[in-house]
Design a protein that fits this description.
There is one protein chain. With 191 residues, the chain is mostly helical. The chain has ten helices and no strands. The longest helix is centred in the middle third of the chain and has 26 residues, at 114-139. It starts with a helix and ends with a helix.
Length: 191
C-alpha cells in the first residue's frame, strides 16, 4: 500500500490521535485540528476516518504476512524456524507499538472491509498454526492443541508492546527475552 506524502502525514498524526483518544473517541475534526487544517480539507486526501483505520490494520497485516512468507521460505531446522517466526513477528510489533495497539484493539471497527480483515487474520493464524504443527511433528514434540498454542503465541507477541512501552531496553534484548520465555514455556528447558 503506497500512500502519498500528505496521506502519510495524515496517517502519522491519526496514529497519535487514535492512540491518545482511541479510534471511536477520535473524530475527523480532532484530526484536522491536530493537522492544523480545516476538516473539509482532509477529504481531499481521505474518504473517511475508517479509511485510515484500514491503512493501519491492512498495512501491519501485510508486514506480518511478508515476514511469515520469509520464514516459511527458509531452510532452517524446525526449532530455528519457530525461533525466527517469533523474532520476526515480535520485531514488527515492537517497532510499531502504537500501530500494533490500534491494530489489536480497533480492528473490529472496520465496517465495510471487516469481513475481509477477519478472513485475513484467520488466514494468518491458520498459516502460523500449520507451521507450528509441522515444527512440532519434525521435532517430535507433543502438541495437544495446535489452535491454543498458536493463539497463545500470537496473543503474547501482539500484546508484548504493552510490557515494554517506551522502555530503554533495546528491541533485540526484549525480543530475546520474550522468545526465550515462549520457547522454554512450550518445549521446556533447552538443556
Amino acid at each position: 500500500m503506497e500512500l502519498k506524502e500528505k496521506q502519510q502525514k495524515i496517517l502519522d498524526v491519526a496514529i497519535e490521535l487514535f492512540k491518545e483518544k482511541g479510534y471511536m473517541g477520535s473524530s475527523v475534526r480532532d484530526l484536522a485540528k491536530k493537522l492544523d487544517i480545516k476538516a473539509a480539507s482532509l477529504y481531499a486526501h481521505i474518504s473517511s476516518k475508517e479509511e485510515i483505520l484500514e491503512w493501519i490494520c491492512f498495512g501491519i497485516a501485510q508486514d506480518f504476512f511478508e515476514n511469515l512468507e520469509m520464514v516459511k521460505d527458509t531452510s532452517l531446522d524446525p526449532k530455528e524456524k519457530l525461533n525466527l517466526l517469533i523474532e520476526s513477528h515480535l520485531t514488527i510489533v515492537l517497532k510499531n507499538p502504537d500501530v500494533t495497539h490500534i491494530y489489536s484493539n480497533d480492528w473490529m471497527h472496520l465496517e465495510e472491509r471487516l469481513p475481509e480483515f477477519i478472513a485475513l487474520r484467520k488466514k494468518y493464524q491458520l498459516d502460523v498454526e500449520k507451521m507450528i504443527t509441522e515444527i512440532y511433528k519434525a521435532e517430535k514434540w507433543e502438541l495437544k492443541s495446535p489452535v491454543f498454542t498458536t493463539r497463545f503465541i500470537l496473543h503474547t507477541l501482539n500484546n508484548s508492546y504493552f510490557w515494554f512501552k517506551r522502555n530503554v531496553e533495546s528491541t533485540k534484548e526484549i525480543t530475546n527475552e520474550i522468545r526465550d520465555k515462549i520457547l522454554f514455556g512450550l518445549i521446556g528447558n533447552s538443556k
